[in-house]
Specification:
The protein is mainly alpha-helical and about 150 residues long. Helix content is about 40%, strand content about 5%. The protein has a three-stranded antiparallel sheet, with no helix packed on it. The N and C termini lie far apart (about 50 Å). Bound molecules: zinc ion. Zinc ion binds next to loops.
Length: about 150
């Protein structure tokens, strides 16, 4: 990678041609030195921490793509693959997803914080960082029925 233009072209290619085998996360990992050299700190952090959303905002900022409208399409419980890259989605459901599942997922995506906590907010996640939806788990309004949730 010799220039900012080349770097942005390469980023755009990865964003527009996603595959489970070559996730954006890997591209960012392989290109950290170039990202640091050719882009500013703000772009660097966006790419490093914000997955697809960060990448789109960097491409927008440099005029490579038109601003993206994120529509919130309701996700279906039967969905198993990321609509964007096709990778297996990780569903985190209270009472169903075990600490071991979470640790395994954390190791797969290389997130030491999640592995250490063995906790992640209930929701559905793409391991490539393309997408996530958080769930608000409504508690029963009757105080007597909200007792034993921490017996795992
Ligand atoms: Zn994905």
């Amino acid at each position: 990678m010799e220039s900012k233009i080349e770097l942005l072209d390469s980023l755009q290619y990865i964003v527009e041609n996603p595959t489970p085998e070559r996730p954006l996360r890997d591209w960012v990992g392989e290109n950290l030195t170039n990202i640091e050299a050719f882009l500013d700190r703000r772009d660097y952090l966006k790419l490093k921490r914000r997955g697809l959303i960060g990448a789109l905002s960097v491409l927008e900022r440099h005029g490579k793509i038109e601003p993206t409208e994120f529509e919130s399409t309701p996700i279906d419980y039967s969905e198993k693959h990321c609509r964007y890259c096709g990778n297996d989605l990780f569903w985190v459901l209270p009472g169903k997803t075990s600490r071991d599942d979470i640790i395994e997922y954390a190791q797969r995506i290389g997130d030491e914080q999640i592995a250490a906590d063995a906790w992640i907010h209930p929701g559905v996640y793409c391991p490539n960082g393309c997408t996530f939806v958080l769930f608000n788990i409504a508690r029963n309004s009757d105080p007597e029925t909200t007792s034993s949730e921490n017996d795992g």
